[in-house]
Amino acid sequence: MEEQLLRPKGNKFLAGTTTPVVLSICVVMCGSLAYGFAVGYSSPAQSGIMADLGLSIADYSTFGAILTLGGTIGALVSGTIADMVGRRVSAWWLDIGRFLMGIGAGILLYVAPIYIAEISPKSIRGGCTAAIAFMVYFGFSVMFLIGNILTWRTLAIVAIIPSLVQLIGIFFIPESPRWLAKIGRDKEVEASLQYLRGKNVDISLEAAEIKENVESLQQLSGSRYLDMFNRRYAHSLIVGAGVLILVQSGGTDAISSFAGSIFKKAGCSVSFATTAMGFIQLPFAAMGVFLLDATGRRSVASAGTCLGNFLVGVGFLCKDYDQMSQLSARLVGTGILVFSIFYSMGVGGAAITIVSEIFPMNIKGSAGSLAIVCNWFTSWIVTYAFNFLFEWSPSGVFFMFTLFSGLMIPFVAKIVPETKGRTLEEIQASMTLLN
């Protein structure tokens, strides 16, 4: 039966994992795969595109960063679209060009984790949301692996496939019951929830909690865009925007987009290093899907990304000394791999999950949009500036990334709450000042 649980009821971790939930998550993750393809595309394609089209470093930096600029524009409207038309249809913007891919990703990478968080049982919500990040890494890794074999034109054609799959699959998944409650479609709330949880599951308590939460939030201000700056939402806003700004300032998109040129500058074998980077991320990203619900969201993996950046910085310092050139290449290669392991295992998935959980329904669109705009704008600055800073001082730019990665540790320890094992309504109520 479609509603039948995929695993025995005795398995607490997978309790409530029904076929509709899995199907919905898989369709949404196709968009994350498409984004992973887009991010991973620019590194293996760099030499071919620059040679065939005669592009300068400045030209290619613009090409690499334009994805994030499109993402910023998409993020500006992501909350409005999510609130107006629901959580399913936003992914249709993923079809045309790198800039439009950026716009689509800006919408999808906020709407998708919200949708998954709103349909998943609390026992597996973290892992389901982190699966989005896993698919980004998977797409990124695939591009790195096959980018050594295919031409940049063929690579672009391959990258279209997940968007087409999602375009079809979007018609076969249900709407979020929490969004339905927000717009007053109470009967459809129960129908959607029953479909997601299974025909024989009692959904009355969960449905009542969702409706009660929405009704209480409607009594608060929150219909205007600027209402998210009300003092009662300050904690949520600081956490959401702060986590994403620090993650991007740690260099993740710059490293992903220009890994090939980093390895080349260090004297590493580019094909070997990018292949190793592609392979090594996947098992650790898969591990992160399970760790997020097992150990919680307040991951210490940011210490690992800090260490990775530091090793790369030291490696490029060693490159100034001829007798240390081999050590330099090893340190840079090791540092990039350490960064990739810890980012894929914890930092990326945890950041996406936290942002999808903390905002109450009445400001979820506006506050979520602002957080994602901060993410994409920071990414655009870092990605565009990276090649220029890298030419100026390879070690300096990675020590700068080390600083921001290190700042994540006290920020998480002092400000970010643990959301593991709590319903969205419990999390949001604990972070909202009612006085």
Cα-based radius of gyration, to the nearest Å: 21 Å
**What pattern of helices and strands is seen along the backbone?**
HHHHHHHHHHHHHHHHHH
Oligomer: single chain
- Span between N and C termini? 48 Å
Structural class: mainly alpha
Low-confidence runs: 1-13, 91-96
Polypeptide structure, described:
Keywords: Membrane, Sugar transport, Transmembrane, Transmembrane helix, Transport. The chain has 435 residues and is mainly alpha-helical. The chain is built from 18 helices and no strands. The chain starts with 18 loop residues before the first helix and ends with a helix. 56% of the residues are buried. Mean pLDDT is 77; it is low at 1-13 and 91-96.
Describe the structure in brief.
This protein has 435 residues and is mainly α. It has helices spanning 19-53, 57-85, 98-119, 125-146, 152-158, 161-169, 177-182, 186-197, 204-218, 234-249, 252-257, 259-266, 270-295, 301-318, 325-358, 364-392, 394-414, 424-431. The protein has 18 helices and no strands.
How does the SSE layout of this entry go?
Elements: H1 19-53, H2 57-85, H3 98-119, H4 125-146, H5 152-158, H6 161-169, H7 177-182, H8 186-197, H9 204-218, H10 234-249, H11 252-257, H12 259-266, H13 270-295, H14 301-318, H15 325-358, H16 364-392, H17 394-414, H18 424-431
Helix pairs in contact: 1-2, 1-3, 1-4, 1-6, 2-3, 2-16, 3-4, 3-15, 4-13, 4-15, 10-15, 10-16, 10-17, 12-13, 12-15, 13-15, 14-15, 14-17, 16-17
